[in-house]
Design brief:
Elements: E1 3-5, E2 19-21, E3 27-29, H1 30-33, E4 38-43, H2 49-52, H3 55-69, E5 71-77, H4 89-98, E6 105-107, H5 112-117, E7 121-122, E8 124-128, E9 134-136, H6 155-166, E10 177-180
Parallel strand pairs: 4-5, 5-6
Antiparallel strand pairs: 1-10, 2-3, 4-8, 7-10, 8-9
Helix pairs in contact: 3-6
Protein name: Thioredoxin family protein
InterPro entries: AhpC/TSA, PRX-like1, Thioredoxin-like_sf, Thioredoxin_domain
Domain Thioredoxin: 9-162
Length: 185
């Protein structure tokens, strides 16, 4: 397992369209996933300890963003499931149900979308404003392979609340850290 950090936010970079199958039986596009005040695109997977450490907060924070701030979320799984069976589409369905994901969980089987976005690790967060211009590319919070203690700053939640209110993300952002995306050979 290679641990990587995400690059600095490329402010105002437009979101890239996609059409990906979800564990809910629907195909999801950028337009369909978008919220009235923006969209959080997350590259996650099932096996990564960095993602497992944030499941509870991820579900809680994305629910708050959707219900209180008009920002929808979508999670994209781009890993090669041949390398990690835990990342299979069937297991994606199980994880989505087990954690009661309040967002679509979709498969990027070709890995084209992860490459187009420049995703490097799981979790990798891309926070967009209402015009679908990038405003956040940072961490959820200070969790690593273990969940950080209660009361820590919730970087992603605070940043996306600011995006919902002002259309702009914070100038200072701490990169997300996680396992490298498992690229096909």
């Amino acid at each position: 397992m290679v641990s990587l950090t995400t690059p600095v936010c490329d402010f105002n970079q437009p979101a890239i369209d996609f059409d990906l199958p979800g564990v809910d039986g629907q195909n999801w596009t950028l337009e369909k996933a978008n919220g009235k005040n923006g969209l959080l695109i997350m590259f996650i997977c099932n096996h990564c300890p960095y993602v497992k450490a944030i499941h509870n907060r991820l579900v809680e924070d994305t629910r708050i963003l959707r219900d209180e701030f008009g920002i929808n979320s979508i999670a994209i799984m781009s890993n090669d499931p041949n390398e990690y069976a835990e990342d299979s589409f069937e297991n994606m369905k199980l994880i989505s149900e087990q954690w009661d994901f309040p967002f679509p969980y979709v498969l990027d089987e070709s890995q084209d979308i992860a490459k187009a976005y420049g995703a490097v690790c799981t979790p990798d967060f891309f926070g967009y404003n209402a015009e679908l211009k990038l405003q956040y590319r940072g961490r959820l919070d200070e969790s690593r392979k273990e969940t950080s203690p209660e009361g820590v700053r919730r970087d992603l939640l605070e940043a996306m609340k600011q995006v919902a209110k002002t259309g702009q993300g914070p100038l200072e952002q701490i990169p997300s850290m996680g396992c490298s995306i498992k690229w096909k050979s």
